[in-house]
Amino acid sequence: MPDVSGSLREQLSVLNRHRRKMVLFFLSTMAVVTLGIILCPRTYESQAMLHVLIGRENVSIDPTAATGPTITMMETREHEINTVKDMLQSRTVLDKVVAELGAQNILDPEQYSNPDQSRDTDEFSFLGKIYNLMLAVNLADPVSEGERAALQLANDVKVSSEPESNVIQVVFRSGTPEFAQRLGEVFLASYQEQHSRAHRTHGSQEFFVEQSQERASALAAAEQKLRDLKNKYGIVTISARQLTLSKQLEQVETDMLSTASAIAGANAKIQALRQSLEEIPERLVTEEITEASQAADTMRNTLYDLQIREQELSAKHTDQNPLVMAIRQQVAQAQKLLSEEDKRRVQPTSSLNPANQQQKLALFAELASLSGLEARYSSVKGQREELLADLKRLNQQEIEVAELDREVSLLRSEYLTYMHNTELARINLALEAESISNVNVVQPPTFVEKPVVPPKALIIVLGFLIAVSGAIGLGLLCENLQAGVIHSPEKMETAFGAPVMESIPSVHLQNAGASAK
Length: 517
Description:
membrane, two-stranded antiparallel ribbon, alpha+beta, transferase, four-stranded antiparallel β-sheet
């Protein structure tokens, strides 16, 4: 088992032998660290916090000069926060800050804090000296002061945000606390202006005002044209006039149907009356008077003689006998002549038939009624034709009025739309003028007098560790460089294998080895 206490004593003796070198190295290192802390330029931080309201529509309306409707897409929190971060780091904002504060103040913040000490930025700035040196050896291209200020500003401004958070942290670094705070104020003001401008359609209000005036003039002209057309046709509303005409037409058609039905009934009645008149005689025989006639008496006597002669012949002869047949023919002729003569002897007396007269009166009345019905039917038919013509003209007028109505409605809708968008554009300009947006500064840029660079405590701790470890390493290195020197009796006994009687300082192993040989 190795002797731990002996090994530890040897190590401590090594450090003790080189303690002066180690102390000198430790003190030198700490002095360099302290001098570095003293000479290192101070960097101060100013921190600001921005709260992003998700959805810019919460605080602003952004009308777009477009003929069709616009669609607002829903944005996620990450998308909107990343958009704000990108705009915070945009070159436009950096250039505005450089123009506001000045390139020399950004490159040399001491000049801003102490305006009485006017000096050349490139001459006194450490980075300026390095840049001039690189220009001298052609390692850098000539860049304007404003460009270098913008590049440095991009390095001095750090934007960050935590996951699942709507807060964005912006850190501004500068050589003085006053300028760091002022840089943050100017930077945030420039960003707010750029944010409002980026979310606004330029020239929208002027466009909508001009379009509203044009639509107002066109609407007034169309309304006047519509009034003139209605006055020309003498109508208030097409629907009311159509309702009146439809009622009148319905009434006329009803009258036509009833009149036509009455005419048909009258014709049927007239036909029936005429048929009945044909069956009823016009005159009736009231009495008959019989007059005496000598010729008839003579003929009657002759007939009697012929009848007696016929009876005699019939008794003597058969019916087929020519004499019988001849006499019978004479009897028939005599009877015929006698009957005719008897008719002439009767003198009838007649008068008008009352039934026939009543039927004729009824027929004449129906004919008169039929004439009236036909005249009424013709009149109603004429009214119907006039109403149909009026309705046809009204339908044509309705087309003209409807076209003007549509034009007026369209112009009124466009006018109201443009007026609404004009008001939205005005509100948007007012929001921009007041710097109102969905990005609110919840923590203005802070004023911190304690510098963040250099981190003194960390540098001192690291310097102390480097000094201690370097001093120990230096002692061990020196010990290794003096490996041929025997520093203890124990090493002497180990080297020669004999006990040491007396210790003499500074005895070299090489000389002792030569003497032993």
